What does this fold into?
Amino acid sequence: MAYEKMTQDGHHGPQVDAVSGVATTGHAWDGIKELNNPLPRWWLWTFYLTILWSIAYWVVYPSWPLVTSYTKGLFAWHSREAVEQDLAALKTSRGAMMDKLAKASLAEIESTPELLTFARALGKPAFGDNCAPCHGAGGGAHGYPNLNDDDWLWGGKLDDIALTVRHGIRAGDAEGRQGSMPAFGRDGMIPRPDVEAAADYVRSIAGLAVQPKADVARGAKVFAENCAACHGEAGKGNRDLGAPDLTDKIWLYGSDRAAIIEGIWNGRGGVMPAWANRLDDTTIKALTVYVHTLGGGEK
It folds into this structure.
C-alpha cells in the first residue's frame, strides 16, 4: 500500500484514517492500518534526560578506553578501588580476632565462645563460596555427603575434617585421601551374575528387601572374596580407606538394587578439591570448625 495518495486538490499527502482522523504510516495487516501517532511528550523528555545523564556519566566517571589507559573522570572513582578499600577496612576491623584465630588450635577455637562465634561467622561465607556448590547448605546431594549427620567416610573429628579440607579426596594431593572403589564388573574382575548376587547380599545386610529368587549365599561369598577387604567382614566399613558402612541407612549414591549394581560394576571415586593452595590457613581453620559444628561433628 502506498504511503501517500492524491488528495482532492491534487496534492500528495499522507493517508488519513477515516475513523480517528490520524495519519497512518501506510502499513496495513489484515485490513488493520497502523496509525502514525507521535510518541508521548513525557516519554520523549525521559529519553532526552537519559542522553544528558549518559554524557554527564562519561565526564565524571571512568568510561572511555584509551590506547594504554582510560579516562579517569572528574570524580576519579571506580568500583575496584572501592572494593579494595572496603576489604582493607574489613581486614583492619578483623585483625585482632584473625590473629587469635591463627594462633589457636582447632580445639581451643571450639572451647572459646568468642573464637567459636568468630570462626563460624568467618567459615559460613567460605563454605557458601567454596563448598555449597556440591554440598548445598550442608545437607549434601546425590554423590555428595551430608555434613549435617554423624556418618563420616573419613572421620568426623576436627583433625579428620581439617585434613580432608586441606588436602582433598583423590585430588592429586599426596597427603590427601586416596582410597577408591574398583570397577569390579567393567574391569572383568567379577562376572555380571556375581555382581548382582553381591548387590542382593549388600541390601540384605542393610535390612533392605531382596528379590525372592536372590542368591544371597552366593552374594555373601562374592562379598567375602572381593569386598570385605575394604568394607570389613560385616560390611561396617573402614574410615582409613573411606569405605562406607553398608549396614546403616545412609547411602551416598542410593540404596536401590540398580544403584548398588552400578557401583559394583563401574566403581566409585568422587573427587573433592584440596583447598590448602586456594584458601589461607586461618580460613581453613574457620571452615573446619564451621563444618564440625553443623550437627554431625565428632569429639
